Amino acid sequence: AQKVTQAQTEISVVEKEDVTLDCVYETRDTTYYLFWYKQPPSGELVFLIRRNSFDEQNEISGRYSWNFQKSTSSFNFTITASQVVDSAVYFCALSDKNFGNEKLTFGTGTRLTIIP
Amino acid sequence: DTGVSQDPRHKITKRGQNVTFRCDPISEHNRLYWYRQTLGQGPEFLTYFQNEAQLEKSRLLSNRFSAERPKGSFSTLEIQRTEQGDSAMYLCASSLAGIRDTQYFGPGTRLTVL
Question: Do B108 and A43 touch (CB under 8 A)?
Fold first, then answer.
C-alpha cells in the first residue's frame, strides 16, 4: 500500500524567513511520481511540481526548491524568503502506477502561516 | 486555456436527499478523477475515468455513489440518500494521459448534509 506522511501539521514563520515542509513516502513501486500541491484559503488545489522516481536532481523555481532523496524516501519542499501569499495548506502526493492509473495518494497536509 | 470547473460550488441538503455534482475538465484532457476531502485531511481518491470508461473505483465509493462520464467530456457524481458523513469537499481533477500526466484540480463542491 502507498502512504504519504507529512508530520508537520502546522508551521508558522515570520515573513522573509525560510521554511521547509517535510514529506516522507512509502511505496513498493519502482516507478512512481511525487507531487506538491498548494491549497490556499479559496480551496482550489494548485499544482506546484511533479517529480519522477528516476530523477533525483534537486529543483529550484524562484523562491521554491525541492529536495528528493530516494535513500530516505523523502521529498521536502523549501520556500525561501517567505511571503504572506505563501500562507496555505501544502500537500505532498504520490502517484499509483498500478495499471497505468496515476491516482494520487495524498498526505494530510501542512498548514503554513506566514506572519507579517 | 480554461481550467477545470465544478458546479455547484456549495450544496446544502437534508439527510436522505439525492444530490448531483458536475465537473467539466480541461477540454483536451481524457482522464477525469473524483476525490473527496474532509476537514483537516488530504483528498482521497474516489473514482477515475479514461474517456467515457470508468476504470477504477475506490472502496470508499459505497453503492450510494455513482459517477458517469457519458461522452468522455463532463462528468457527474451522484450521491443517493445522503448521510451526514457525506459532508465533505468533492474535488474533480483532469489530466492528459501520457508521460507528463499531471492532474489539475477544480475549485471543488462543498457538500453539507444537515
Answer: yes
Q: What is the pLDDT along chain B (114 residues), one digit of tens a residue?
A: 579 999 999 999 999 999 999 999 999 899 999 999 999 999 999 999 999 999 888 888 889 999 999 988 999 999 999 999 999 999 999 998 876 678 999 999 999 999
What is the rounded CA–CA span in Å between residue A82 and residue A80? 5
Minimum distance, in Å, between the CA of residue A39 and any CA atom of chain B: 10
Q: How far apart are CA B31 and CA A113, in angstroms?
A: 34
Task: Say if A3 is an interface residue toward chain B (CB within 8 Å).
Answer: no
In 3D, which of B95, B57, B73 has the Cα closest to residue B22? B73
Residues β-bridged to residue A88: A112
Chain B residues whose CB is inside 8 A of the A42 CB are: 107
DSSP sequence for chain B: ----EEE-SEEEE-TT--EEEEEE--TT--EEEEEEE-TTS--EEEEEEETTEEEEE-TTS-TTEEEE-TTSS-EEEEESS--GGG-EEEEEEEE--STT---EE---EEEEE-
